[in-house]
Amino acid sequence: MKKMFKKAVSLLLAVTMVFAMTCTTFADDKKEAGDYKIVLILPGQINDQSWNATNYAGLVACNEQLGTNMEYVENVQAADFESTFREYSERGYDLILAAGSQFDEAAATIAPNYPDVTFCVVNGTGCDGDNIAPIFPREYEASYLASIIAGNITENGNFATIGGFPNKPMEHLLDVYEKTAVSIAQDKGIADAKATRAYSNNWSDVAQGKQMTEQMIDNGADVVFAYANEVGLGCIEAAKEKGVKFVGFSSDQTTVDPNTVVASVVFDFETFYTWAIQQYMDGQLKGNTVHEAGINEGIFKAVYTENVDQEVQDAVDKAIEEYKSGSVDLTKLFEDNSEAETAE
Fold first, then answer.
1. What is the spatial distance between Cα 176 and Cα 225, in angstroms, rounded to a whole number?
2. What distance lies between CA 289 and its chain's CA centroid?
3. Range 242-248, long-range pairs (CB < 8 A, 24+ positions)
4. Domain extents for the chain?
5. What fold does the segment set 139-267+300-342 form as a domain?
6. Do the domains 139-267+300-342 and 33-138+270-295 match in fold?
7. What is the CATH number that goes with domain 33-138+270-295?
């Protein structure tokens, strides 16, 4: 009987030791935030006061708030997308982020070769892969807020809109902006209100942005909206020289010239990035899924100068509340863009 008792005690001790060793192994395997190898690939420069600057701000927030040691590489050209993905994959990085839907194709090509690496395209929509997990700010919700501002500040109802490339997210956000701004102008009694759209087909040619905008202003536009990274800086310069208003987007572009950029709709990528990276570290940033955020998650906010009346600011606040209540469906504006003309 005593022998059986001793055997039982010995067995219990052995099981306890194995369990304790297993738990210790699991604890040791759990990485601290600073142990993850993470890199952000940017298509432009971090000082572009637009998309790249906004994404870089998210990186800084993660490093400060979460304790990550996220790195970045800027101004990566399209011809180098795949090789850059491959380089960091070969170097054993855990998470590779890339800022812009233009990276979707490269991620889809490279990801299958590196199943232990998570590829996350910011603003991406391609998610065909267990290790492809894009995060997508619903930019058309942000452009909706910009359109409320534009529709209320225009004097003649002639809107100029400039995009980088005509990909689906860009088309959607410009559809929402144009149709809503035109509708507001018409409600104000401007029956012939219209929007004219042009694409730069690049993100960096400042001179081209200025030239395109000058032409559209000469054709009557009195409010300009551009989402094209560095190209947008040229658009702002043209608006300043021609004395028309500009609605900023993505980052706070009122700092460029508050008398021209009278308001901006800012992407709070500090919140967006910390949310996404925390999801990743918690094992919740799953592949084969587009992880979205927008107005309801609080990642868009309007910034105003003294050149925007309180009435306009109140209109934006009202639009936010109506959207949150579910009474506004912006996706209905994707289907038809008949209100907008296309610049030659």
1. 12
2. 16
3. 242/213, 242/214, 242/217, 242/218, 244/217, 245/153, 245/154, 245/307, 247/146, 247/149, 247/150, 247/153, 247/223, 248/303
4. 33-138+270-295, 139-267+300-342
5. Rossmann fold (3.40.50)
6. yes
7. 3.40.50.2300
- β-bridge mates for residue 308, sequence order: none
Task: Determine the length of the chain.
Answer: 344
Q: What is the pTM of this model?
A: 0.78
Using only the alpha carbons of the chain, give its radius of gyration.
25
DSSP string, 231-286: HHHHHHHHHHHHT-EEEEEES-GGGT-TTTEEEEEEE-HHHHHHHHHHHHHTT---
Structure tokens at 114: 């590196």
pLDDT digits (tens, 9 = 90+) for 2-38: 444 445 445 444 444 444 444 433 333 578 999 999 9
- Concatenating the DSSP letter of every residue in 299-319 gives -EEEEE-TTS-HHHHHHHHHH
Which single residue is written with the structure tokens 């190209």?
Answer: 231
The two structure tokens encoding residue 328: 């506004």
The pLDDT tens digits of the residues spanning 208-239 come to 999 999 999 999 999 999 999 899 999 999 99
